[in-house]
Amino acid sequence: MANLLGVALFALAILVSVSLHEAGHMLTAKAFGMKVTKYFVGFGPTVWSFRRGETEYGIKGIPLGGFCKIVGMTPQDDDVDPADEPRAMWRYPVWKRTIVMSAGSITHFALALVAIWIAAVSLGLPNRDFPSTEAEIRQEPAVIALSECVVPESSPRACAPGDAASPAAQAQLRDGDRITSINGTPINNYGELLVALRGLKPGDTAQIDYVRDGQPAKTSTVLAQTQRPPLDDPKGTVAPVAALGVGLVPTTPTRVTYGPVAAFGATADFTRELAVGTVQALQRLPQKVPALWTAITGGERDVDTPISVVGASRLGGEAFANKAWLLFVTLFISLNFFIGVFNLLPLLPLDGGHIAIAWFERARSWLYARIGRADPGRVDYLKLMPFTYVVILIGGVFTLLTITADVVNPITLFPR
Question: Ranges for the Peptidase M50 domain (predicted)?
Answer without folding.
Answer: 10-364
